[in-house]
Every structure is written in C-alpha cells, then in structure tokens.
Request: fold
Amino acid sequence: MSEAVSKGAGPIRRILSEPLGVVGVVLVLVVVLGAVFADVLATVDPSSISPRDRFLPPSLAHPFGTDHLGRDLFSRVLHGSRIALAVALFATAASLSIGIVLGLIAGFGPRWLDALLILLFDSVKSFPTVMLALALVTLFGPSLTAVIVVVVLVNVPGYARIVRTQTLSMKDADFVAAAESMGAGFSRILRVHILPNAIGPLLILASMDIPVVIAIEAGMSFLGLGVRPPTPSWGAILNDGFTAIRDTSWIAVAGGLPIIVTTLGFTFLGETVRDVFDPRLKVR
Amino acid sequence: MLYYTLNRLALALVIVSVVMLLLFSMIYLIPGDPAAVALGPRATEAMREALRVKIGLDQPIWVQFWNFFTSAWTGDLGREVLSDRPVAAVVLEQLPFTMALIFSGVGWSVALGIPLGCWAAVKRNSLADHIVGVISVAVIAVPSFVVAIYALLLFAVTLRWLPAIGAGESGNFFDQLVHLILPSLAVGIGWVGYIARMVRASMLESMGAQHVRTARAFGLPESRIVYQYALKIAILPTITLLGVGIGQMLSSAVFAEIVFARPGVGKLVYDAILTRNYPLVTGTVLVTTVLFVLINLLADLIVGMLDPRVRSGL
Reply:
C-alpha cells in the first residue's frame, strides 16, 4: 500500500492510489459502459442472421468479425455483457439477502436449528461447483433460473456463516444486553448493533465473489446449460467459437476476451477493496 | 487426535448422507415420469408400468429413499438407462482418466507455483515480487474453460504442437502424456496462483524463524538457507492447501474433458445429461461428491496432525 495517501483519505482515492485498483476500475468501467451503451455502440442487432457474411474476420463494419450464422460478434459481446452483469448483480443480491436471513436464524435460533443449518451449508459446499450445476440443470432445465439457483447455493453458505458468527459474538455482548435493558426491540438491535458489524466483511466477500459468479454464468452457458440461444451470452459465444474452431479463431477469441477482461477487472478491484478496507481478511 | 479423527469422520459420514438426501429429492423432483423418459415415446403403458415396478417407483417415497440410501452405501448406484450396465462400474471405469488429469494439474501448479512463490519471497517487495503477485491473482481469476479454449486454439489448432482431442493411444504412455499436457495446464494453472501466494506467505514467515537466522549467522550459502531450511517448513501449509485444490480441480477437469474430448467423469456426466440418462447423472455426481468430501477430510486430518491447535479448536 502506498504511504502517500493518508488513512483518512476517501475510499475511492485510496483504491485509486493502488496500481492494481486503477487497472481494476478501468477494466470494470469498460465492461459496465459497454453494457450500458450497447445499443449506441453496436448498431447491428445481435441476433440478426446473415448467412452470406459468416466467419468474417474483424473489419470496420464488424470490429470482432462474424460468427457461423453471420451475426455481428461485437454486438453480441456488448449485449452479452448485459446478461453477465445482470446475473452477477441479481444473483449476488439474492445470495446476500438469503445469506443474511439464514445467518440470523442460525445465530438467534435454537441450537438444533443452528446445527442443522450449518450441516446443510457444509453439505451444499461439499458438491464440486460444476457437479452441483449439472445436477440442478437436470432439475430446472437449461435456463437463467438454473444459473441463479447455482450461484445462490454456492454463495449463501459463506455469507450466512459470516452473519452467524457476528450474531453469536454480539448477542451476549454487554452493550447489546444494555440496549435490551433500555427497551431496545429486536429489530433495533439488529439494525444498530449486529448488521453494521457484519456488513463490511459481507460486502468485501461479495465483491470478490463477482468474478466467480460471472465465471459460473459463462461456464454454464458454454456447456449449453445456462442462457438459451439466441440470447447473446459470452459463454454461448465461446461455445460457438469452440464448435467452429477449425474454421476460424475469431469467434473463440471474441467469446473469451470479455470473460478475461471482466473477471480480471473485478478480481483486481475486489483484491484492492479488501486490502484497503480490511487487511485482516487477507488469508493467502 | 483420536477424538478429532472420529469427529471429522462422523461429520463426513453425516454430510455424505445429507448429500444423498439432496440428490434423491432432486431425482424425485425432476419433472416427467422417469419410466416414460427412459423408454421413449414408443413404449406401451404396460412396459412403463413394468419398469416402474422394476426400479421401485411404485413404492411410497420413504421406501424409495431408504432403498436408494441403503443401496448407495453398499456401492449399488442403479443401472444406467442406455446399456443397462451398473452405474458404479461405468463411473469407476472413467474415474482413472479424471484422476490422471487432476494429478497432472497438481503437477503443473506445484512445479510452477512453488518456485514462483519462493522467488517472490526471496525478492520481497521487488518488481519481481509484484509481477508474481499480479500473475498469481490473474491466473486465479480467469476461468479454466477460457484457458482450455485458448490453449486449444493456440497450441493445438494454430501452432499444431500438441494434439487437440482424446486421451492418447491406450498402452502408449508417451502418447497419453502428450495428450495430458494441454488439458492439465488448463486444470492446474489457476492453482499456480494459490500455491505461489501460499508459498510466498509461509516462506516470509519461515525466513524469519530462529533456525534460519542461525543458519545465516553460521554463514551458510543463501541458496542452501532458502531451499533447504526455509522451504522445508514453508511447504507444509501448501500440502494441506492442495487438499482443497484437488477438490476444486475436479470442476475444472469437467470443462477440460469436454473441450479436449477426453474420457473421464466430466465428459460422462455431461453426455448423460444430454441423453437424459438420469441414473448415470446422479451416480456420477454422488461418486465425485463423496470423493470431494474424502479429499477434504484427508486434508483436515493432515492439518490436525501437523497443528494441535486445530484439534483442540473443535
């Protein structure tokens, strides 16, 4: 960490004082702006098929080339970023809310319920991620829902554990007992004493999980188990590229590059956020 | 230690049971009649009924679960739909390919990760250290299936240095080894980052240890201090980290097997899903999950053996 920026500086300035943080912010901004302005930047419809233009190399008209159906890859990649970011945002928010509720139940509830929940978390964590995803797809069928359920199941145990630990260490603390004796209700104790202490580590963990979520969405779509065609998803584009790998390499490159840029961007950013706000969490 | 071992073992057994319960509920919840799916549209109602009785679907749900549970513990995972072979036999036939892939992945991560971590620790806070740090984060971040596709594209399709598909001629060790290079790189490269970071951190700790300072005071050559004294201690936490690593590499192996068209449990379960061969899907998921639990148990026990604090922390 550079010494030039004082501890009191604003969080954004502290992140931007780290070279890795700057790279992370730039990469994430590229992806987010691409998603927001997808319609402006790419005027071609991502799903419009043009068999005469298949397997075109990059050109001014098609900056990333075209795929096996003659669809514009630049447009597909930009629209794919909407799917990736929407899944990341929605699934992370859902995991956080469910994790907080289950963590509170485990922390405040009777011991047997706590033990049961912990056992359930450990069991879900015991599935290798891909195997869990494959098993769930047989249940839900290939869909965006399946992707979100997988992400929630993978993430919730970690979040719930943080909230549970925090709750257990707080609920018998003297200042909570004092608040209680002064007539503070359950919801006030939750809002004022327990959640504020858990929210920091939770948000740091969640920000570091975002690249994992994006990888799960892309990975499942790559296997044809996530977003259904013709909806553009990076994983699906990568799969098109894999199928056509002996005809052209551009499709595979166009499908893989945004995944690399996004996972790197969010990882660099997440690592910096963690180092800046909570160096204790730095495990490895 | 005995108490700790028994405790971990009991927990592992309970977890495996819960995993079985979850998998069973999943099969039970799959929409559609399994008998109809298995026999296809041309089967008569009588044929479907016969199959339902044969695989026990006419029994009440708790009896079905009890049957599934008891037979799974004795290694009977049912029969797969297409060839009517026992699921356990089919899975065990494919498992060695996946294990070979995972252990070669471990090979890559150890062979690259340990020297990188050492180097970063010795050159602490230098440019080299920072570069190793960024590379470690980067290889952890990029998903293994992207690495697999790009490796296939670069080394197999464009440069034609290495074979693109299959596991190699059976019996020809060298051929099989050559076929392992790219898939195992895709499986192991992410863990190069984890190992490098772990080795760096524990090397920094052990280089400040008393015996290393003594060795330095006696004027031993620096390379001997680093590799013989400091690394020897620093390597222990890395071994336990690999326990977790092997489990996670299982996920990457699924992708590597599909991309490089290699036989293995990942390819098996993927093809089973595409052909709706559900007994094979649940059987494979169960076997790999139990494997994952066992490997983590082993890692836990090794940590407990090396570090008494973990045992008492129960």
